[in-house]
Design brief:
Layout lengths: L9 H4 L5 H12 L4 E2 L6 E2 L3 H21 L29 H12 L5 E6 L5 H6 L6 E8 L22 E6 L5 H15 L1
């Protein structure tokens, strides 16, 4: 079933990103030619702020529909993506931490809930890791190519902040790892962690 598309509210975006970032992003998005989302490599076209907020809103709506029991699972096919956006700003073609914001909304509305997120992309899910680094109620797991992007994150020794030790698991895989390697990692690391 298709769910409604709605723009994320400012108070939802603020669960992860600071107002200073939102203000700058919106200002850049209003310019005729747009600009950059903050990291020097993430383009932001005119109107991009609203498009990004609609992507986040769609992920929030899906997560809430799952929590209500309206659907059993979902797939939010949205652009721009979100797993590289860190709390302080956009990165790697990601404007907002789509999943980070959606899970923060779920946590706000369901105090004490425990959540796990599994990111299997060729790139490290550094943004989701950043958002929940000190949150003991969210387990973040990322399977990715070792040191591909960002080159300086996604190492095995990144295990969570002082407030949430062992709440973050990185599985950096060698370039060219195929289905067998991913399946092995899922069976021997991801499933037991969950």
């Amino acid at each position: 079933c298709a769910l409604p598309i709605c723009e994320a509210k400012n108070e939802e975006l603020l669960l992860v990103h600071p107002q200073s970032y939102l203000t700058q992003l919106k200002k850049t998005s209003e310019q005729l030619l747009g600009g950059d989302a903050g990291d020097g490599e993430t383009p932001l076209a005119k109107g991009g702020y609203e498009i990004g907020a609609m992507a986040v809103g769609s992920v929030i709506e899906m997560a809430q529909a799952i929590m209500r029991g309206d659907i059993d699972n979902g797939y939010a096919l949205v652009r721009p993506p979100g797993h590289h956006a860190i709390k302080s700003g956009g990165m790697g073609y990601c404007l907002f931490s789509n999943l980070g914001i959606a899970l923060s909304v779920i946590k706000r509305d369901n105090p004490g809930i425990k959540i796990a997120t599994v990111d299997w992309d060729v790139h490290h899910g550094n943004g989701t890791q950043d958002v929940f680094w000190d949150d003991p109620d969210v387990l973040t797991i990322s399977l990715h190519q070792d040191r591909l992007y960002p080159r300086t994150s996604g190492m095995r020794d990144e295990r969570g902040g002082n407030g949430a030790p062992n709440s973050n698991i990185n599985i950096p895989l060698p370039a060219g790892t195929g289905n067998g390697g991913y399946l092995y990692a899922f069976e021997n690391v991801v499933a037991p962690a969950l």
